[in-house]
């Protein structure tokens, strides 16, 4: 039995192996198989982890199988249990975001630095020129200068049809014509193998590498697939082997998909991961050194940009603040802001409607301590009916009437005072002319007219007028007597009392006017009786009136009583039994 | 997306390249045709079952003296023999090419009689033509100049390639 086992070690052929197995276990084969199957679970569970570990160590094949499975199951879980997933991930998200922002900034700085160094430095300009000269893009030229090699793109092609199954590239943007390139490459390979066939008819010539000055297409061939790597620079044997291993892996993993290939490239999307692993690059030593430098140029540029943005932001903030401040002028009574906007870097322009009674713009700016240089004002006039402005107008009007005082009761104006009638009328006119003043009627009622007697006005015109009025009143007075009588009846006494008061006023006024006055009291009688009697009667009547006035306190020196005798009144045909009065005046000597 | 390789074959000057130009919007590059004898373009065709991207291999015109690069037919899902109805010879040559192609591939083939915008000038009778077209899945009359029949022909070939 042991001998048989030893012999079996030397045999490699599968069929022979089977024979040996048959010899050894013979009819027990099915039983052994049965036992194995019964215990399969335990047997596998004993070694499964180690087996996975060994295989992974050997050629990373486990990754290739597991990654698409995990991706799919995660995708499914996220789709179906998104709430739970959010719960799991929530505590991580903050950290992730911070990390990615940091990474982004670092990469941004790095890229900016490269850009500046490559664009602004002498070397950069030189490279740019040489790239232009050799007809390649600048980035490609930079790559060729910076890297020992770099795998730019990897294509996976179906050999027989030339159809592109998958492609990955360094830049991420797969060339739109990659599928045409694949087909052409297949055609070129066919062309080459046909044109340069060797004497051995069965041996087909195949392209392995297509090389230009600094670009090569490395073609790795599997039984059904091609792996084509577009490489800048020179690749080492290691990398070339890596490509070969990759295509072998893909063949192994996708053998079913390859054999069933009918033009559908979808199943081959899973090859992206192993293909991406082929996108390798190696920096040149000096480039490596350079990349470790801190990106100082970029940091300076970024700082300048931030400072500029900051300064601009500050200016803009201040300008907006000023605009806001200036716009507040609209809160002033009698000023309406029509438009307000920023102009230039730090100025504002404002257009307002302003009532002439409102505060002036310049004054307002000064009160607010705003620099008038920064404010362009455009002002148009208008009439405001705002209560406050109406009040201002009222105050302005009343300034012309010093004897009328303005006071406020619960926000409403009240006028008090006493003025001459003419002035009161003028005031009423003025009040009615104030726009927006609704209660002018009420207001004017508060102002009373000055009584003439209490006039304390010493102007000669007024004194003269008063004198004339008093004089007219005296001159128009006459008192009646009974026939043949010279005594005063009650009515006559009343009249004389009033007359005495007028006369006193007239005397007062005449003193102020520096006039001399005298009252002539003229008695008259009717024609009954003798002429002498009537003459005497008329004098007696005048004297009676005179005596009464003296009794009322009038200085007798002012009074001159005369008898006129019979005064015939032609209109009535009878005489008048009256005493009449006349004031005479003359300038004092 | 499903991708299929198809080939256009035929005698020189029958209008294979013009047919492709009529069908494909962006021409990849004509200059390869004369270099290595094949020009490849692609076009997505909308079919009832979905989209198919045709990789159209336009193989250089062949005459009886020049060889035939049969490798270009490898992996083709269908091919078309293009003839010119103004030249009797183009059908004979087309049939010779078809014979050679048969030896290289089992893919289904269609016949295209091109230049339908011009008057018929070959001496083949309808019976003779029917005899020849038995060899093919279908026969199309097209004009690369006016575009008549071109779209239909390519749609048919796309459908054919899926079988």
Automatic annotation (TrEMBL), chain A:
<feature type="transmembrane region" description="Helical">
    <location>
        <begin position="296"/>
        <end position="315"/>
    </location>
</feature>
<feature type="domain" description="OmpA-like">
    <location>
        <begin position="468"/>
        <end position="589"/>
    </location>
</feature>
<dbReference type="InterPro" id="IPR050330">
    <property type="entry name" value="Bact_OuterMem_StrucFunc"/>
</dbReference>
<keyword id="KW-0472">Membrane</keyword>
<keyword id="KW-0812">Transmembrane</keyword>
<dbReference type="InterPro" id="IPR006665">
    <property type="entry name" value="OmpA-like"/>
</dbReference>
<keyword id="KW-1133">Transmembrane helix</keyword>
<dbReference type="Pfam" id="PF00691">
    <property type="entry name" value="OmpA"/>
</dbReference>
<dbReference type="InterPro" id="IPR036737">
    <property type="entry name" value="OmpA-like_sf"/>
</dbReference>
<protein>
    <recommendedName>
        <fullName>OmpA-like domain-containing protein</fullName>
    </recommendedName>
</protein>
UniProtKB/TrEMBL annotation, chain B:
<keyword id="KW-0547">Nucleotide-binding</keyword>
<dbReference type="InterPro" id="IPR001806">
    <property type="entry name" value="Small_GTPase"/>
</dbReference>
<protein>
    <submittedName>
        <fullName>Rab family GTPase</fullName>
    </submittedName>
</protein>
<dbReference type="InterPro" id="IPR027417">
    <property type="entry name" value="P-loop_NTPase"/>
</dbReference>
<dbReference type="InterPro" id="IPR005225">
    <property type="entry name" value="Small_GTP-bd"/>
</dbReference>
<dbReference type="Pfam" id="PF00071">
    <property type="entry name" value="Ras"/>
</dbReference>
């Amino acid at each position: 039995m042991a001998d048989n086992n030893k012999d079996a070690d030397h045999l490699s052929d599968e069929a022979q192996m089977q024979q040996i197995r048959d010899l050894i276990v013979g009819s027990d084969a099915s039983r052994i198989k049965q036992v194995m199957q019964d215990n399969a679970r335990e047997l596998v569970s004993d070694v499964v982890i180690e087996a996975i570990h060994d295989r992974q160590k050997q050629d990373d094949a486990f990754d290739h199988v597991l990654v698409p499975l995990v991706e799919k199951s995660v995708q499914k879980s996220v789709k179906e249990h998104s709430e739970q997933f959010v719960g799991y991930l929530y505590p991580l998200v903050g950290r992730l975001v911070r990390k990615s922002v940091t990474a982004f900034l670092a990469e941004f700085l790095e890229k900016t630095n490269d850009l500046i160094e490559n664009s602004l430095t002498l070397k950069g300009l030189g490279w740019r020129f040489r790239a232009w000269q050799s007809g390649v893009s600048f980035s490609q030229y930079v790559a060729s200068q910076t890297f020992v090699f770099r795998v730019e793109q990897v294509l996976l092609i179906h050999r027989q049809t030339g159809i592109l199954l998958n492609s990955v590239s360094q830049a991420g943007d797969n060339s739109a014509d990659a599928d045409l390139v694949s087909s052409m490459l297949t055609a070129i390979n066919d062309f080459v193998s046909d044109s340069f066939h060797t004497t051995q008819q069965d041996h087909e010539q195949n392209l392995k590498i297509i090389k230009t000055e600094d670009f090569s297409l490395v073609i790795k061939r599997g039984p059904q697939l091609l792996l084509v790597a577009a490489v800048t620079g020179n690749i080492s044997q290691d990398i070339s082997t890596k490509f070969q291993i990759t295509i072998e892996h893909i063949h192994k993993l996708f053998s079913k998909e390859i054999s069933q290939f009918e033009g559908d490239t979808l199943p081959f999307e899973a090859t992206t991961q192993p293909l991406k692993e082929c996108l390798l690059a190696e920096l040149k030593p000096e480039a490596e050194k350079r990349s470790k430098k801190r990106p100082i140029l970029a940091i300076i540029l970024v700082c300048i940009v931030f400072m500029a943005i900051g300064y601009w932001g500050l200016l803009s903030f201040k300008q907006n603040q000023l605009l806001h401040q200036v716009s507040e002028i609209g809160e002033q009574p009698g000023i309406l802001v029509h438009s307000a906007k920023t102009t230039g870097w730090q100025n504002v322009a404002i257009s307002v409607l302003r009532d002439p009674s409102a505060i002036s713009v310049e004054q307002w700016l000064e009160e607010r301590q705003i620099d008038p240089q920064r404010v362009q004002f455009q002002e148009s006039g208008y009439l405001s009916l705002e209560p406050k402005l109406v009040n201002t107008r009222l105050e302005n009007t009343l300034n012309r009437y010093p004897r009328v005082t303005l006071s406020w009761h619960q926000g409403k104006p009240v006028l008090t005072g006493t003025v001459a009638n003419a002035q009161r009328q003028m005031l009423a006119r003025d009040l009615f002319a104030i726009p927006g003043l609704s209660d002018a009627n009420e207001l004017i009622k508060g102002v009373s007219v000055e009584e003439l007697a209490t006039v304390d006005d010493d102007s000669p015109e007024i004194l003269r007028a008063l004198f004339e009025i008093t004089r007219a009143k005296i001159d128009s007075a006459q008192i009646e007597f009974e026939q043949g009588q010279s005594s005063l009846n009650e009515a006559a006494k009343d009249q004389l009392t009033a007359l005495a008061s007028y006369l006193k006023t007239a005397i007062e006024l005449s003193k102020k006017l520096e006039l001399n006055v005298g009252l002539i009291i003229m008695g008259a009688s009717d024609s009954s009786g003798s002429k002498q009697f009537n003459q005497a009667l008329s004098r007696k009547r005048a004297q009676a009136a005179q005596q009464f006035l003296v009794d009322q306190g009038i200085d007798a020196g002012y009074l001159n009583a005369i008898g006129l005798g019979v005064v015939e009144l032609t209109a009535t045909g009878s005489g008048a039994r009256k005493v009449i009065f006349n004031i005479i005046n003359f300038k004092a000597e | 997306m499903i991708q299929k390789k198809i080939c256009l074959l035929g005698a020189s000057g029958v209008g294979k390249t013009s047919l492709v130009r009529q069908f494909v919007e962006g021409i990849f590059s004509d200059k390869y045709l004369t270099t290595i004898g094949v020009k490849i373009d692609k076009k997505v065709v909308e079919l009832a079952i979905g989209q198919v991207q045709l990789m159209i291999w336009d193989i250089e015109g062949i005459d009886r003296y020049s060889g035939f690069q049969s490798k270009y037919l490898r992996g083709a899902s269908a091919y078309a023999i293009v003839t010119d109805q103004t030249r009797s010879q183009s059908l004979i040559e087309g049939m010779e090419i078809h014979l050679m192609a048969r030896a290289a591939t089992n893919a289904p083939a269609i016949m295209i009689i091109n230049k339908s915008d011009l008057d018929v000038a070959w001496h083949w009778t309808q019976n003779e033509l029917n005899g020849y077209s038995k060899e093919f899945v279908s026969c199309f009359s097209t004009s690369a100049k006016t575009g008549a029949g071109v779209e239909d022909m390519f749609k048919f070939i796309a459908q054919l390639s899926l079988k």
